[in-house]
Amino acid sequence: MRRRRQAPWMREMVREHRLHPSDFIWPLFICEGEGEEQPIASLRGVSRWSIDGIVERAKEAADAGIPAVALFPNTADKDRSEDAREALNPDNLVCRAVRGIKDAGIEIGVMTDVALDPYTSHGHDGLLAEDGSVDNDATVDILAAQALVQAAAGADIVAPSDMMDGRIAAIRDTLEDGGHSNTAIMAYSAKYASALYGPFRDAVGSGDRLKGDKRGYQMDPANGMEALQEVELDISEGADFVMVKPGMLYLDIVARVADTFETPVFAYMTSGEFAMIEECAAAGAGDRDTMLMEALTAFKRAGATGILSYHALEVARKLRA
Ligand code: PBG
Questions:
Q1: Pocket test for ligand 1, best of 44, 162, 194, 201 (most atoms within 8 A of CB)
Q2: Residue 316: which domain range?
Q3: Number of domains in the chain
């Protein structure tokens, strides 16, 4: 076996998987204002940007060969409410950001998150029922309307991350009826109730608000087979792409989905997984760049079609150089 490992050229010759800029989707956090950059303390090196900055970031991403960006708003406090009505405002932060990127003529896919957590006063992804649980069907109605508003603003891909039952079918129907048959759906199909979303919740400002947890709708980390059922349902309801999230700790799920279905599968290196690498490196426990490339390559080896990663721009630029 070692004959094949004896020199860099030989290892290059037999390498099974490689990263490419087109493997990445870059998540970006948006804030209100003009010329604003707000560093996120728990997400080393990542900032929220006002829309002008988001447009610049999208341009950089396109120049680096990244096919799509994913937008997440930090909604102003005054616009958060029990019923998340700001999610349906055609002039909300995320819709304005989509239009900003599209009006600038940047050749890049724009993906928007369909879920209510950036808009609810309680931080949940859906509407609360009387008993405090998240009301599935009432939420699905709003999610479908939210997706339509985002598609109308110019989103190319809508990405439901809420984990309600039946939302993919409802969103697909609403998009068709609304004249947006070309808008694609990336379903967060196997999304787990993970402890690895902390820095993300800081970034969108939903963490401190969250009452309880999301275990009533996100998946139990102990379950694997159930992920295949979720993926199967989402594909049958019309998902164009499916996703596993978190990714790094769930590569077994990525591999099973990739082996079982023909639909492209994406995996999300979540904020907590980003922090694992950055904080580990900052503590002097490993070489940051080597750990990062190893982790990202592992997604490809598991069978991921693409990776949502906060490191996307940095890595895509490095791969191009
Ligand atoms: C919420 C959403 C979350 C993430 C993406 N969309 C957090 C959550 O479910 O609480 C997490 C992303 C990350 O941690 O990087 N709809």
A1: 201
A2: 17-320
A3: 1
